[in-house]
Amino acid sequence: MFHVRFHPRFHPLIGGRLVLFHTICLALAFSACRRSAPPRATTVAIVTGRPGGVFNIVGEALAVSYGKRLPGIVATTALNANLEDTLDILERGDTDLAFDDSETTYRAYRKGTTNLDRPHSRIRAIANLFPTVVHIVARSDLAHGGEAIAVPAFEGTRVNVGPPDRPTAPLAEIIFESYSLKRDSVHTVFDDPTDPAADIRTGKIDGIILWTPFHHPLITRVTNETDVRLVPLERKEIENIQERSHFLRSTIIPKGTYRGQTRDVPAVAEDILLLCRSDLSEALVYDLTKALFEATPDLVRAHRAAQSIEPDHGPTTSIPLHPGAARYYRERELPR
Question: Looking at residues 117-141, what average pLDDT do you find?
Fold first, then answer.
């Protein structure tokens, strides 16, 4: 009796079926492997500010919160001290998110920057975060007879206004001009204020002007370690200042914000924005916007300036919102 065995190589019907069978098995196995593989992480790069600054502290905390709250998101941070350069980085697509102020952002969006002289059409806003406030600090002995210190008391004194290439220096000039103080009547010191408390104690300076969110470490240190007062701005002069810089708004430094501050102090402020690239997906920016406000308690623990972050103020930005952020604010309003 003969046993005939057909080898698939030589029998077209059986061989074809076996080859098809093996092909289906391999395809199913490959598909199963693809389904079981973890999803690819999405990296979100955030440009903050100078080391130890408020932008940097809040940005680092935000990156950690994004990683915790958004599965598949890996958030990274990078430092950059120059506000215009930050917007150039965002416009070129070298980062995804960034912190910047309202006026610098608006000017870049409409006209460009010093180094990238064209409208930055790729930048969009996610949220208005918190104000950066003008703090004017003077030695207490500049007061006469216990009266409140006014800006004219700086005549003949030395006042640190920061390096000339940073925003505080030109703003200080606007403030002095609003009070009709002549350019040479105040001795402006253009130093990086690394330790203004020591400079005031040793008599190197009589006062300092800082443009920073509330509770900046330098302001806190000065008010804790030296005998100083916060100098208020008068209403008329605030209006004069706003005529020269339309993005500045009047605000109050609430009493008790700093040691020894027994009354509200009128000041001017500008809003700080969280920005993104226009080509990020709507779904991603929606999630980033939602997670930002959910993470506010974590951000406040990192820095008290984040106390001002709230959804009601979020959409009040100087440039258009990203569609993903706009959808978050729109959906939030629907149940009301």
Answer: 96
Residue-wise pLDDT tens digits, 73-96: 999 999 998 999 999 999 999 999
d(CA 61, CA 298): 7
- What is the enclosing helix (H) or strand (E) of 222? helix 217-225
DSSP letter for each residue of 57-121: HHHHHHHHHHHHHSTTEEEEEE----HHHHHHHHHHTS-SEEEEEHHHHHHHHHT--SSS-S--T
CA gap 123, 136 in Å, rounded? 33
pLDDT surpassing 50 at residue 33: no
Domains, the chain, ranges and CATH?
42-130+273-333 (3.40.190.10), 132-270 (3.40.190.10)
Residue 288 CA to its chain's centroid (Å): 14
* Whole-number Å distance between alpha carbons of 52 and 15: 71
Instruction: Write the single-letter amino acid at 166.
Output: R
User: Which has the higher per-residue pLDDT, 280 or 15?
Assistant: 280
206: DSSP letter? S
Q: Which residue type does 109 have? A: Y
Phi, psi for 59 (deg, rounded to 5): -65, -40
DSSP 35: H
Amino acid 25 reads: C
User: Which residue type does 172 have?
Assistant: A
What's the CA gap between 276 and 289, in Å, rounded? Answer: 11
Residues across the chain: 336
| DSSP string covering 147-178 | PPP-GGGGTTSEEE---TTSTHHHHHHHHHHH
Tokens 């509330």 belong to which residue?
Answer: 214
- Measured CA to CA, the distance from residue 134 to residue 171 in angstroms comes to 9
**Residue labelled with tokens 């046993």:** 3
Is the pLDDT assigned to residue 227 strictly greater than 80? Answer: yes
Residue 141: DSSP 8-state: G
- What is the CB neighbour count within 10 angstroms for residue 184? 7
